[in-house]
Write a structure and sequence with these properties.
32% of the residues lie in helices and 19% in strands.
Length: 205
């Protein structure tokens, strides 16, 4: 063995196993195309249990109403894969273009354009179920976002709003009722979150 070989550090079997597992996990993440939160865009992903709850809710709604219902997810991309696994017609409306990976299911979305009557007019009256999670806890953001919801919804659409509890009064003014469910995030947030809907959400929990 040469002197140069002696200088190469050797990992113990245990350390090598840990490294191999780490590399495998990183490779798995790349395979599924996981996108990390961008806090500058006020992105906060739901935890696994919250994702499961919304998957269960959507599954029950599909069974009760129509297998072909169209679902829109506005600013809540961490729900997409869960909902898409059980529903055929799902669109993700998102500002972050990293989600173009979902190809035809992706719609570039900017709540700031909510006041424009022509914005997203191609989706006017299109969706049966809409789940909205405005990126910012402000009256302006929720108001503009909800104008878009009102544009793309069908007359009898089921609407779910996840937002900070401090938006409760505005949510009620929009015709939504607070449910008992509290959405949770992977990274705990300082703000309490609530779930509002224009139907009896608790019935489907």
């Amino acid at each position: 063995m040469s002197l140069e070989d002696d200088d190469v550090p050797q990992l113990s079997a245990e350390t090598q196993a840990i490294l191999n597992q780490f590399l495998k996990e990183q490779n798995d993440l790349e395979k599924v195309g996981e996108v990390s939160e961008n806090w500058q865009l006020s992105q906060f992903w739901y935890d696994e249990e919250t994702q499961k709850v919304f998957g269960k809710i959507c599954k029950k709604l599909i069974k009760e109403y129509d297998e072909d219902i169209k679902i829109a997810l506005l600013s809540c991309p961490s729900l997409f894969e869960t909902v898409r696994a059980i529903a055929d017609n799902v669109k993700i409306f998102e500002y972050d273009e990293r989600f173009k990976k979902y190809e035809s299911d992706f719609v570039h979305y900017d709540y700031n354009l909510g006041d424009s009557e022509d914005y997203l007019k191609e989706f006017t009256g299109s969706f049966d179920v809409i789940i909205l999670d405005p990126p910012f806890l402000s009256e302006e953001c929720l108001t503009k976002s909800y104008k878009i919801v009102s544009r793309i919804r069908k007359e009898n659409s089921l609407i779910i709003l996840n937002t900070g509890s401090i938006q409760r009064d505005l949510a009620v003014k929009l015709g939504l009722k607070e449910s008992s469910f509290k959405p949770q995030h992977k990274n705990n947030l300082a703000n309490d979150f609530s779930c509002f809907a224009n139907f009896d959400f608790d019935k489907y929990l």
